[in-house]
Amino acid sequence: MGVALYHYFRNIDHAFQQPEVGLRLKFLDRRYSEFRPVIPDRECFLRSFIFSYLEQVVDRIDTHEEDRLLAAVRELARRADHFQWASEFSRRREAFERLIVKIKGWKRMWDYPTSRVSYNRGEFLLEFFSSYDTTDDSEKTP
User: Can you name one GO molecular function term for this protein (predicted)?
Assistant: First the structure.
């Protein structure tokens, strides 16, 4: 919880001088196992949501969800091409498809002994998302 406090308040002593902060943190600490600090921009909720969802996808043994996602995204891409929607959808779709294909390939590596293949599910997703550029939407002013 200390990392989350520092991320949001920078000065922990100052944060605890605000009574509502302590009460809220006590409530959150009882109900959640961990906090994931996010950069507060226009896409922070979506990034946090998709990251949490993908953690669950990665933790599954089978690849049924990945296959379902790829089929759904490709159907949307077909419709987008039909209506000639902007290329931004295409760029994001391609990035998402690459991630899902990587997850499927990564799951195939689980069949090998861990002495030959080392993996960490959370680090895998963090590495992918840290290499993904910010989108134009987050840089636009209202």
Answer: cysteine-type deubiquitinase activity
Boundaries of domain holding 6: 1-37
Whether residues 73 and 126 share a domain: the answer is yes
The token pair that represents 104 in the structure block: 């499927």
Residues 48 and 3 in one domain: no
